[in-house]
Amino acid sequence: MRLGKKQVEQLSGFTTTFITYGLAAFIGMVYLTDWRAVVNYIPYYNQKFESTKKPEC
What we know:
Blueprint: H1 5-12, H2 15-33, H3 36-39
C-alpha cells in the first residue's frame, strides 16, 4: 500500500501531536523507571539521591 498525496498531507498535520505524545512517553518512562542517569540533571528532583562519593579518612 502506497501513501498518496492526501495521506501525506493528513499525516503532516499530526506531527506536533506525534512529537508531544513521544515526549510525554519519554518523560513518563524516565519517571516510572527512575532512570538515574537522566534524573541526576533535573534540578530539585536529583536531591533525593545521596552522593556516591566516599568521605576521605
